[in-house]
């Protein structure tokens, strides 16, 4: 069993479109991997996506939104959560991806990721087989089941304005975008 929750409508359609436009227009740099300061250029064989620099107002709006979702996530996962980390505004172009990985809460590396308990992804545009220009194909967020069970893979529905959250130790990946551009916001709630 893969433990995740989908919360619909954390952003409305107009807010999603405005965020996509802001991220597209923003300057960005290749998104890196946590705990690696020596990335040149950001391990493109592991993760290829652009992290956009958005306005402080936008970042503040998303921080407030993440704080408002905390109680529902604590109830669902049975965890006491602290603050969400600085959100990342991600722009995936055709061919961009993130290989299977865990975001944290694994005793693997002695870095900041050990404080992460819950990963959250907010979808800003829609995945479709034959996408209109504002939407995309490919680019599935796929959660993997734990080793203790059957080889399970579950694609998350990419509905604009919805938030999907899962335990940060859950293996997950973003498959390559095959058409157009994909926009998401990601953050991580730490333990209380
Ligand atoms: O963009 C996504 O759907 C998820 C990205 C991700 O897994 C991450 O940034 O750790
Ligand atoms: Fe991740």
TrEMBL record:
The keyword Metal-binding applies. Keywords: Dioxygenase, Iron, Metal-binding, Oxidoreductase, Vitamin C. It holds the Pfam family 2OG-FeII_Oxy_3. SMART domains: P4Hc. The keyword Oxidoreductase applies. GO terms for molecular function: dioxygenase activity; iron ion binding; L-ascorbic acid binding; oxidoreductase activity, acting on paired donors, with incorporation or reduction of molecular oxygen. Residues 83-191 form the Fe2OG dioxygenase domain. It comes from the Bacteria. InterPro entries: Oxoglu/Fe-dep_dioxygenase_dom, Pro_4_hyd_alph, Pro_4_hyd_alph_FE2OG_OXY. Its cofactor is L-ascorbate. This is SM-20-related protein. It comes from Mesorhizobium sangaii.
């Amino acid at each position: 069993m893969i433990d995740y929750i989908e919360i619909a409508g954390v952003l409305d359609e107009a807010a999603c479109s405005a965020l996509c436009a802001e991220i597209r227009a923003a300057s960005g740099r290749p998104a890196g991997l946590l705990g690696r300061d020596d990335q040149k250029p950001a391990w493109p064989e592991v993760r290829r996506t652009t992290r956009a620099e958005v306005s402080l107002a936008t970042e503040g709006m998303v921080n407030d939104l993440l704080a408002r979702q905390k109680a529902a996530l604590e109830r669902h996962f049975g965890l006491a959560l602290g603050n969400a980390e600085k959100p990342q505004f991600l722009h995936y172009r055709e061919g961009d991806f993130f290989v299977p990985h865990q975001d944290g809460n694994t005793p693997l590396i002695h870095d900041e990721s050990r404080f992460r308990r819950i990963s959250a992804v907010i979808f800003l545009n829609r995945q479709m087989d034959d996408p209109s220009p504002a939407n995309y194909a490919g680019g599935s967020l796929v959660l993997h089941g734990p080793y203790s069970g059957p080889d399970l893979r579950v694609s998350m529905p990419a509905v604009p304005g919805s938030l999907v959250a899962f335990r940060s130790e859950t293996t997950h990946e973003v498959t390559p975008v095959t058409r157009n551009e994909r926009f998401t916001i990601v953050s991580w709630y730490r333990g209380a």
